[in-house]
Amino acid sequence: MRLRIGLLAAALVLWLAACNVASSGDGGTGGRDGGEGVLADGASDDGGVDDGEGPLDAGLPQDAGGDAGSSEWCGPCEVTDPAELDVMSKAVQGLYGEHERIYVRGVTTWDEHYEPADRVPDASQETRDDVTAKNQGGRQYCLCGELSISPEYEILSVEDFEARKYMVWDAGSDAPALYFSRTGFNAARTEALVFTGYICGGLCAEGYYHLLKKSGGVWRVEKTYHLWSS
What would the DSSP string read from start to end of 169-197? Predict the structure, then answer.
């Protein structure tokens, strides 16, 4: 009898042990199954948090291929002062406003042979000094911003402007090519001086200084000085 009871007890122990082993190997809902297992709520395989909207970097800004402060024709913008753009616009509108379309060189330039001290005696000394200081030595600046003029206009790179200029020379055009200097101001910014060059076809080109005065918050062309023509 005791032997039977001992054998039954041993069998019961072995059976319980076998059940425990089977239970611990079951993936169920209680843990990992030896493979990738069940991840905690909200976790992703790459260690980040899955919010249901794809990869972690989704929606972050990517390289847009440009800078908001740059132009397509000459890189970082340098001529963006609203007062300077307003002066340029008034100078253009005064002489070239009758055209339906014009092309504008996207980089400023200046002819040093026409010093304003000699050509624009009515401008103040500080205005003449400012336009000279900004432009001397062949300094050039990238022109950005909008011109307030009635003709349609297109701002071109230096290369495209040169190509357009020669096209105008060869065939003539109702859409002339135009270029600017930087604008000089007096200290009070009530006087301005800017140079424009104008190419309108074969043996058709002009250069001007435009002297502007500001009155009642509005820039007006005071006088235009014709420098050369061909």
Answer: HHH--SS-EEEE-PPEE-TTS-EEEEEEE
Q: What is the pLDDT of residues 57-116, one digit of tens each?
A: 222 222 223 333 777 878 899 999 999 999 999 999 988 888 888 889 999 998 777 788
Residue 53 inside a domain? The answer is no
Is the CB of residue 78 less than 8 Å from the CB of residue 69? no
> Residue 159 sits in which domain range?
70-229
Domain count along the chain: 1
Report whether 109 contacts 178 (CB < 8 A).
no
CA–CA separation, 146 and 93 (whole Å): 13
**0.90 exceeded by the pTM?**
no
Is 113 part of a structural domain of the chain? yes
Q: What does the alpha-carbon distance between residue 81 and residue 23 come to, in Å, rounded to a whole number?
A: 78
Question: What is the token pair recorded at 192?
Answer: 């301005």
